[in-house]
């Protein structure tokens, strides 16, 4: 599976002001988000969770071949199995969840699994975050903008409150496509809501996007 912009955005954007000791990436795919957070933080324990066998094997390879292999570990399990007997709390939980909720199924089941919300319903994800998040922890996700209000309402049911929201647009003239959301257990009245535009035209990246992601691209 290719590295998608969503994963890069979440890995670069996720707040780490709480200096997390332990991080969990739910639905790791190739492991890109966990790897980016290993590069950005001093976290000593970075766990990833991936149900798809091929993606899991790719994650393990990527972790083992990285400079941070001693801090990274991938579990081959579903979220439901993982939360049955939680051993740890995490200071940071991140997820780029599968979210093709439109009535569309591709020819390959594997790709569907990576994209479909029925593989990991938002409520299951939020419930797991509530269970596994430390008292001062941060929970960060990237989701379709049209799902934002629903996700915020579900999170509030579990007493997880917005800490920061960034709306992502492909170009200045297109509609908002994605929402980057960070939550904490503390209710923040004056949390930040801002906007990020990726390109001004094809492959002409905005200064804001370059600033956010330049540490992770070889050519930017």
Word description of this protein:
By secondary structure, this protein is of the alpha/beta class. The chain has one domain (5-214): Vaccinia Virus protein VP39 (Rossmann fold, 3-Layer(aba) Sandwich), CATH 3.40.50.150. 32% of the residues lie in helices and 29% in strands. The protein contains 8 helices and 10 strands. The strands form 2 sheets. It has an 8-stranded mixed beta sheet. It has a two-stranded antiparallel sheet with strand order 9-10. The protein is globular and about 45 Å long. The model has no long low-confidence stretch (mean pLDDT 89). Residues 22-105 form the Methyltransferase small domain. Its main location: cytoplasm. It is found in: Cytoplasm.
Tally of alpha and pi helices: 8
Mean of pLDDT: 89
| Uncertain residue segments | none
Instruction: Record the strand order, biggest sheet.
Output: 3-2-1-4-5-7-6-8
How many strand elements?
A: 10
Give the terminus-to-terminus CA distance: 22 Å
Strand content: 25-35%
Instruction: Write the CATH architecture name.
Output: 3-Layer(aba) Sandwich
Radius of gyration: 16 Å
Q: What CATH first level would be assigned? A: Alpha Beta
Largest sheet: 8 strands, mixed
Output the structural class. alpha/beta
What's the domain count?
1
Classified in CATH, the superfamily is Vaccinia Virus protein VP39
Molecular shape: globular
CATH topology descriptor: Rossmann fold
Element-by-element helix/strand order: HEHEHEHEHHEHEEEEEH
């Amino acid at each position: 599976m290719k590295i998608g912009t969503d994963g890069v955005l979440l890995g670069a954007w996720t707040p780490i002001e709480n200096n997390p000791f332990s991080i969990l990436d739910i639905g790791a795919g190739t492991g890109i988000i966990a790897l980016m957070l290993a590069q950005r933080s001093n976290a000593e324990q970075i766990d990833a969770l991936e149900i798809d066998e091929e993606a899991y094997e790719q994650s393990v390879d990527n972790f083992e071949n990285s400079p941070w292999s001693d801090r990274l570990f991938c579990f081959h399990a579903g979220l439901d199995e993982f939360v049955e007997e939680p051993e740890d709390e995490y200071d940071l939980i991140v997820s780029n969840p599968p979210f093709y909720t439109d009535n569309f199924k591709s020819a390959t089941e594997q790709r569907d699994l990576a994209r479909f919300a029925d593989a990991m319903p938002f409520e299951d994800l939020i419930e797991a975050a509530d269970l596994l998040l430390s008292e001062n922890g941060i929970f960060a996700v990237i989701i379709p903008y049209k799902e934002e209000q629903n996700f915020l309402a579900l999170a509030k049911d579990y007493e997880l409150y917005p800490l920061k929201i960034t709306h992502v647009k492909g170009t200045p003239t297109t509609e908002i496509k994605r929402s980057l959301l960070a939550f904490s257990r503390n209710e923040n009245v004056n949390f930040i809501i801002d906007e990020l535009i990726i390109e001004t035209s094809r492959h002409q990246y905005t200064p804001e996007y370059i600033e956010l992601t330049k540490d992770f691209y070889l050519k930017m």
